User: What shape does this take?
Amino acid sequence: MKFKFNIFFALVLALAGCTRLDYKDNSAISPENVWTNKTMITAYVNDIQGGMMPGWPVNANGTDEGMNGPKDMGSYTRGQLSIENSGYGLNYSNIDKINFFLEQVETVPANVLNDGEKKGLTGQVLFWRAWDYWAKVKEVGGVPLILKPQDVSNFESLLVSRNSTTDCVNQILADLDLAIQYLPAKWDDNQYGRIDKGAAMAFKGRVLLWFASPLFNSSGNKERWQKAYDANLDAFNFLTSNGKGLYQGKYADIWYKERNEEVIMVNQFYFPDHAFNQSSIHPEPFSGGSANNNEAILPLLLAFPKADGSKFVMDLDRLASDPVYNQQMVNDFYMNRDPRFHDVIFCPGTVYPTQDDFVKGQSYWNAWRTEPDAGSTSGFRYISLVLNQLSTGVGSSSTEYWQLKGLDRSLTRALLGQASTDWIEIRFAEVLLNLGECANEVDKSADALDVLYKIRKRAGIQSADGKYGITASSKEEIRQAYMDERFIELAYEGKRWGDLRRWKKFDLLNKIKYRSGLHVVLKNQTDLNNFDWTTDMYTPEIRSKFRFDFIKNMDGDDSYNFNLDLNHWFYPLKKDDLDRNSKLQQNKEWGGTFDPLQ
Assistant: This one.
């Protein structure tokens, strides 16, 4: 059974507002009564977590992980920057709710909440205040620190200037330290999903990793890296002592075997009260609504190494000119990869995991053939092979590589809104990667490498020397190895854009320029006549009938390309916020006076 965070407190307030002025009902629920009732106090905390716990991210678009569709590329990614299209708004609704709780809970008598219960609830709420403030600080730098309920009748008191980034981070860490002190190591099974001590420690490690990274630490202050290392080591030691670790089953099952040892912080999805609509990440034929989001583009397709951990390298020039090489690339692409590859990405000509009868258990042949087209610059056009039939569509509307990670495989097209796969916001692999990255920066290279070996061993990579394809030895090489491994291990988990920002590595996107892809193309039209649509690309005879074509720009328009500005790393405050509060300062990068690095 999944613990249900509900909106009970919102119901409490709604009911309170329904009492007639000319009639006193002593049994009615009122806001004042909340603080004399343990159930309603707990419901208040549930409401905070229910509203703030992140869910499944579908945000690969705009990174080198994926795209949603042709020309679906944001202006920021294309280098078209302005305060109007890039502004970040300061919303304090959660902070206000949290501060109100922290003030009120102090007045709750012991006969309503004992000391342990009060600390457990307070620890959760302090975690969420730290979470909210960090969400703001990592985007814009320092923000106004509001730590007490505000008097909305006193307008002048609401106008508060920004605190420094350092002040904000110190407050975030203070809230987390107190939360860690108050929270239990583990909640009872019927309270599973609440924030516990391990989750707070892991999040503290994440915050300090970011604060030590180049985005905030342009001078490379080693003391910050040491603090980040210490926090992540504390989290690692605590979590392992309480039974947490890398899930040792199949990588894909991390998201299907609920409550496994890798889960640190989780949003539990369940139908009908709290389901996740997965229609957007399905291929269009399997979707009842939006579709084709988070499709993998070339950098992610090539990022996963070979089965022995060595780099998968594809010479795109040779791919076009050497048919023998092309065939070898098709074979290696499908058959000689890191096992995580086929757990994360659906590839053309393989069985799509669905319960729809019209294709259940058959390969989804979202591949291509070509036919002459005198009107095109290439002299031909692509015609798709979809659902075992020729499509009337011309050209490509998708990359043909879809997200498999976390896909609820029990659903039909009509039920995609009922997905119940839990979202793991923090898992043990991230804690390990955070620790290892910090270890490298504090000159513990052996420890850093050991983490990479553990991650790849769990992935199922074969190794004769115990290094699992990792060849890095210097600090710079190990740093790059961590960039590469996070891209693979955490693919489609909403971490890539943040990693590129904190490393200040938008140049990696600019270098690839276009969102490129690979078409799987039928070599000979005559092979269609007797094609066995129930087989797949894991069969050598079938693979021999196909080749790869490199598609330079899946957007189909060269004005759509990565062109990120390398002088803008923090977002601007929205103009509306500045207009409402004359004490707010805009960030320096956007013409203001506030320095996010102070």
